[in-house]
């Protein structure tokens, strides 16, 4: 199923089940409130009730979709995890990692699937990265790759927006260049794991103003999503709602200097998950 967080006008935040072009409120179902993160560990036992929910139904065009997961504890990203992308990075002078290369995106960067992306005052090197986002559904540690799918709640489309000149030079850990406000669009909803036959072979595409910039399948990953979960859970406890951005394919703007400009419309779509679309706007002036 597809689960969304949304509001109507300036009203309260609701949870809903997305069916085609409509969303039906499920917040009134017993055991469900307005937090998607809190119900993730209980999704298996709530599935039937969610499917049968008959709350208020609205056209998606009548609501504002929010980032699907509220208040995630972690938002982690893996660098250079697609074969062709790693090669384009190598040609730009960045060595290909010999192990999984993880960084933090601060959760304050997260915005909804159609929210604006701000071009920072301090940089002209604003870049895009379409990624398959994995959402953890269970508290877990020391998960083997063979069992990793059992801890996945579902998937989203992510744009790992990056400020290139605030990456290695200003922040060797990548964190600053990955964490500017508004640089974490996610959505359009959470598609639960049972809806996706094989997350290791999904078509993904990113366009800027209708021009295709990235067009790959998730089968080009160096470390697949199960290997990623196994690696991370060796180190840390993964919690319900934690978000893993699992890498971007070739075609980013950095190698050619084809960076995003104010007014650009960036659309990312992944097979079976839907699409997010964000307009680049100027960061408000300091004190504005």
UniProtKB/TrEMBL annotation:
Domain (Fumarylacetoacetase-like C-terminal) ranges: 76-281
All residue ranges annotated as the Rv2993c-like N-terminal domain in the record: 1-68
Coiled coil regions in record: none
Pfam families, alphabetized: FAA_hydrolase, Rv2993c-like_N
Highest taxon above the source species: Bacteria
SUPFAM superfamilies: FAH (SSF56529)
Keywords assigned by UniProt, alphabetized: Hydrolase, Metal-binding
GO molecular function: hydrolase activity
Stated family: Belongs to the FAH family.
Protein name as annotated: Fumarylacetoacetate hydrolase family protein
Organism from which the protein derives: Demequina litoralis
